[in-house]
Design brief:
Strand content: 15-25%
Shape: elongated
Number of domains: 2
CATH architecture of the largest domain: 3-Layer(aba) Sandwich
Distance between the termini: 39 Å
CATH class of the largest domain: Alpha Beta
Radius of gyration: 20 Å
Strand order of the largest sheet: 8-7-9-6-5-10
Order of helices and strands: HEHEHEHEHEEHEHEHHEHEEH
Length: 309
Amino acid sequence: MASDRLFEPLRAAALSAGRVRTAVAYPLCASSLGAAVQAREAGYIEPLLVGPAARLAALMAELGLRAGSLEIVDTPDDEALAARAAAGLARDGAVGMLMKGSLHTDHFMSAVVARESGLRTGRRISHAFVMAAAAYPKLFILTDAAVNIAPTLQEKADIAQNAIDLARALGVARPKVAVLCATESVNPAMPATLDAAALSKMADRQQIRGGQIDGPLAFDNAISRQAAEQKGIVSPVAGDADILLVPDIEAGNMLYKELTWLAGAATAGLVLGTRVPVLLTSRSDAVQARVDSCAVAALYARALAAGAR
């Protein structure tokens, strides 16, 4: 589709940097192991499979993969233990990214956020979808549609900062953040509009850095300059947003699914706010979405590594 081409510069940039060593936790189904292999073939990751070696070797044989072509870290046949082993590899610097295999998300994320994993930062963990829609001229980030249910003002500030850092890693010099609400007016009866106004001021006072934030903005004002002008909104963000920050997971999840299933948007997603990028791949994800997620994560991993030096 036409919108998919918006990912091409990111794919090229990720390819130029070489593969990032990635721990893939418990990839014991064809789709999860296949996603890791496809991302390797595309040139974005070097997968390190973490799980029971005998079962992984048998699955590789079923998929026609040569024995020894992928490195395996042998663990007991237990999802939680494999997840903890993968997180430990990231903590110890053996890998630069983590990728979910066929284990349950709660087992995977429990290992990521556990105190002993050492992967948490001072910020709230959040999720971001990088999206391309045919009706919008550039990539944009939708956050948070997967992790935070009803974030507080401070949690929204962390979500915004995480997304800004990702956008900068993807080449946007000063990302524009639209804080979405049902209206563009501050209304005390609608708490999300108060949070939006506060986030805008927090950015003005450098409590959130590296981007421009404006809100409250309704969705049409955020993505259409014409709609903003018709309502008399004067804003550098309106109609040109790089990041759409939603008020809660319900709004974000519905918007994400509307864009993908009705508008045919191309997507890539990852978890932010951790010391390494974390990929929550799903068996329902399209092949290209899984591969593009690895490309985005590789670029973000490079930015995190550069910041640590």
